[in-house]
Amino acid sequence: MVELLAYLRANGFKTFIVSGGGIEFMRPWTEEVYGIPPEQVVGSSGKLKFEMRDGKPVLMRLPEMNFVDDKAGKPVGINSHIGRRPIAAIGNSDGDQEMLEWTRAGDGTRLMMLVHHDDAVREFAYGAESKIGTFSDALMAEAKKNDWTVISMKDDWKTIFAPENK
Q1: What parts of the chain have a pLDDT lower than 50?
Q2: Which of 70-76's residues contact partners 24+ apart within 8 Å by CB, and which partners?
């Protein structure tokens, strides 16, 4: 995936991460790991409130969600944070279906892909019963029906993790 992101950027594409994970959790490490700067990360977030504390401005977290970037929330997050429909979307779970549908609905050529985490030996298998990263049979059927490209980590990836430098 790192190689794909680098290839896209080298060929004039602007890349984003659109994750169900918390935006404040994601932003500190996405640039180092994926080459994606914090301002190009869309994620779930809690509500914040501006306050002055001891004469200094602070943002206080409130005990409620601002936005959940999963399922139907992904197209909303893309529109709110990025401001345009993607021409390519790559997901890896049921939470990405609406993002792929939103991408597909745009004009012109579009690319919709799913990475199927189906290699429990070399990585982790997301299946229909997974609690995290569910990749259901219904999602696979939707991918086939809509001609989305499904990439099997087990069958299509020669290497999952780069070898460690010694």
Answers
A1: none
A2: 70/20, 70/44, 70/95, 71/95, 71/97, 71/98, 72/98, 73/20, 73/44, 73/98, 74/18, 74/20, 74/42, 74/98, 74/99, 74/102, 75/99, 75/101, 75/102
